Amino acid sequence: MRNPQVFNFFTELLQMGAAFFRQHWCNSGIHSLHAGLNQLGKIDADIFRNVTLSPFNTYRYKINHCLFSPSSLDSTEALSEDVELAGSCVKIKDSADILGEWGCGDNDIYKIFSRRPSLRKTDPKILQSKLEILSKLGITSSDLVKMINCRPRFLNCRINLFLNERLEYFEAFFGSRQVLAKAIVRNPSLLTYNFHNKIKPVIAMYESLGVSNRDLIAVLLSRPTIIPRTNLNDEKMDYIRKTGVSKESRMYKHVVSLFAISRIATIREKVVNFEKYGFSEDEIFGLIGRSPLVLTLSIDKVQRNMTFILGTMKQSANLVLGNPFLLYSNLENVLKPRYLLACKIEDMGVEPGIKGPAMLRALRMSDKRFVSAFITRHSGDVANELYTFYNNAKCVRRLAESSKKNSSKGFPF
Questions:
Q1: How far is CA 381 from CA 113, 375, 377, in A?
Q2: CA distance 76 to 73
Q3: Is 386 helix (H, G, I), strand (E, B) or coil?
Q4: Cα angle value 351/352/358 (rounded, 5°)
Q5: At 252, phi and psi to the nearest 5?
Q6: Helix axes of 234-243 and 252-261: crossing angle, nearest 10 degrees
Q7: Is the pLDDT of residue 180 over 80?
Q8: Phi/psi class of residue 302: alpha, beta or left (left: φ > 0; alpha: ψ in -120 to 50)?
Q9: Ramachandran region of residue 138, left (φ > 0), alpha (ψ -120 to 50) or beta?
Q10: pLDDT of 156-175, one tens digit each?
Q11: What's the chain's average pLDDT?
Q12: pTM assigned to the model
């Protein structure tokens, strides 16, 4: 320092402050130190004129004890700890605290953060406001876990746009807040879709096609992504008419919705695939009208089941028109092992056999009922032999099936 007098003064000031701090620490704490330093400041008004001490506020102060320790030993010990002094120290809440207070357990919070790690850094106030909206809708913590699993970015989206108008419309449409909450859990994006340009036009379109409110609610719950995927044109409307399904039929809502969410190219490919097995266009659309879920089957599954029915079982393709369940049945677990067991029973000459109409009934049975009807009803070695043969037939898997990687996250639709 340029002025030795000032340097000496501040040295003495620190020593006096340290002594005063040690003497009054337990009695009056840091505020006594502050008062003492203010008193020391009056010793030399000329030198200490520009020195001011601000009053303590609510911010946190950290004081290192080594500055006020009389010996090197005390200084070394004091270096290992900091004394935190604060007028009022309030812990800042993070997103985990907000979720915990809302009702989420540790396991729920772990699942949410695992699915959407960025939620750890989200603004707690914004997160709390969104959770309050969900609480008013009756959404629980377990529901929230399902919603984040399906829509990881849900809590990062703005769900307050047209909120009141949206909720009033949905409550009138679904009839109750409980059904609305169920629909939102199935598809959280109902709170984020464009309300005026997407939600209302799509619902109005289905209503104009004759789908009742009750049927439309059932479709929305069974196929949550129907709103963003709906796209109807003249060609699809022509396909719907070819099915011959009336508006009063229970299948009508499924026919309309499945054609609406399917791509034109996909519909054409599936129709052509059926034509390969000798079906006419009228027979194909008639089959879709009786069993609309045929449209959800992949081309590969239809080809494999039809090849087994025609090639191995030696049945007519028309059998499928009256029994669509043959297309839905699993080839490795149902069709193939049960047909092979029927052949085994016939070779052994055991009664009752599985022939004709009994074959169709056997293919439609649950596994437990099938085993009881055709295997365990026999006694001794016959039952054991049939059961072993049946289990071995079920263990035969499609080539390279074990190496397939099925990763399903979000909506399985």
A1: 56, 11, 12
A2: 5
A3: helix
A4: 150
A5: -60, -45
A6: 150
A7: yes
A8: alpha
A9: left
A10: 988 888 889 999 999 999 99
A11: 80
A12: 0.69
